[in-house]
Automatic annotation (TrEMBL):
Transmembrane intervals: 25-42
Gene Ontology molecular function, alphabetical: aspartic endopeptidase activity, intramembrane cleaving
Name of the protein this chain belongs to: Putative peptidase A22B, signal peptide peptidase
Pfam hit, one: Peptidase_A22B
GO CC aspect terms: cytoplasmic side of endoplasmic reticulum membrane; Golgi-associated vesicle membrane; lumenal side of endoplasmic reticulum membrane; lysosomal membrane
GO biological process, alphabetically ordered: membrane protein proteolysis
Keyword annotations: Hydrolase, Membrane, Protease, Transmembrane, Transmembrane helix
Length: 73
């Protein structure tokens, strides 16, 4: 949400400087959102999973619980 809010602010400033011309979603909002997504993925070490479509090394806890429940029934 922070990246989206910052991108809206930058878009507002840029549109005022350019007299209302341009495509704010393509120039500012999308790069801010994608950049934040990629930076957080790199920081958390999850970017490799995103690009290679691998299964995570550690499965989600709710998935493990569902698997155990199906085995018990």
């Amino acid at each position: 949400m922070t990246a989206y809010g910052l991108s809206l602010f930058v878009t507002y400033v840029a549109l005022n400087l350019m007299d209302g011309h341009g495509q704010p979603a393509l120039l500012y909002i999308v790069p801010f959102i994608l950049g934040t997504f990629l930076l957080l993925g790199m920081k958390r070490g999850e970017l490799k999973i995103l690009w290679t479509r691998e299964e995570p090394e550690r499965a989600c806890s709710h998935i493990q619980q569902e698997d155990q429940q199906s085995i018990n029934h």
